[in-house]
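Our collaborator T.R. sent over the components below with a one-line note: 'Predict the complex.' Nothing else. No constraints on interfaces, no templates requested, no preferences about which chain binds where. So this is a plain run: every listed entity goes in together, and whatever single assembly comes back becomes the starting point for the next discussion.
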Amino acid sequence: MGYTLNFNLIWRHFEKLWGGLLLSLELAVISIAIGIVIGLLLAVWYVSAGRLVRTAIAAYVEFIRNVPLILLVYLVFYGLPTVVDIAYSAQTSFIATLSLYSGAYLVEVFRSGLEAVPRGQLDAGKAIGLTPWQRLLHVRLPTMLRITLPALSNTFLSLFKDTSVASVISVPELTYGAQWINFNTFRIVEVYLVVTAMYLLTGYALLYALRLVERRFRAAH
Amino acid sequence: MLGQIAYALPFLAQGFAVTLWVSLLVVVLSLIAGVMMGVGLVYGPAPLRWAVRIFSDTIRGIPILVLIFFVYYGLPAVGIHLESFWAAVLALTLFKTAQVIEYLRGAVGSIPKGQSEAAMAIGLTFRQRLAYVIFPQAFRRFLPPWINGVTDAVKGSALVSLLGITDLMHAINQVIGRTYEAMPLYILGAVIYFVVNYALSLASRRLERRFSFIRE
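Returned assembly:
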């Protein structure tokens, strides 16, 4: 024991943590945006497709969900460039990985959301003469989004935490900033206390804001 | 290429054994700690409930990776020296314990209040109520999500590679460092993790169906 807390060095390098936090949020926001597109397209395709397509989509979902994220991050950043001739930065590589990762979780979320849309709503859409495309766009998707909003917020919050894995390929997000200060100043306990507080405050503030949004959409209908 | 990978297989198998060993330790330790703390959360006096709630919400609010680094680098700084293996097991156990607490709370909370009241009415003590009335029923709701959650321990264990522990993930990276066969080895690794975790999630789904009769 006999450890004296001294936060001075943490504050001196605080821009590493602050910039890291902003980058973590940015990575999570971009990844979930792309993940939502992947998830929506595949979920809509899944519910109307034949067996082969369903199997292929299920294979993608199960593969991503059952492999550690860190392995996927390595695979895309170190593995893929050895077989295909493309070059990308660590950050782009991580966004691609996290998008594919969140896409797999969101296919499941949207798929069960689509199935939870009451049959009567679709029949009503048919009765007033909407085309299948209009029924999807104006009836099924809006209802499904309202149903899946809580699951979407939860996915976003866990993605925010998952951005910490980007540190293993040196993307300077919050966890990377923490390690930098850890190795350069040795104020180890202090830096992880501050970083823990930053993850918690941001996470719970986001949770609170997202719950407000959810309540608004529920109250409106 | 295949020859090199075949040559590396025993080394990878050792890494895989470490992955399984870490996961097993974490799963068992977190089950014990989580059930005890979960009971504290549901039935304990207010200060205990608060303590468990804060513990669980804090652990679940931060990335596992931060937890691992905090334990691994932080404990020696305050004079507690753990081997890196045990630091990793401790960090992952803390993370899993928070999950187990929530599974237990959910499972026990789903048992109708009347069950507890009836048990009280026939004069069972608190321990008897838990052992003969609440737990046998809650067990069926606890088991499927818990087994599914074991996959989180297996996946989380890949992060211990960052502490230099030669688990499957680290073994793969080391073989790649020598052979430069990145893609085949990462795919091999992914397949191994997939097989283990997919089997667990299938078992979880099957149990859920098996126990679906209690959803009356």
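Summary for T.R.: Chain B touches chain A through 39 residues (CB under 8 Å).
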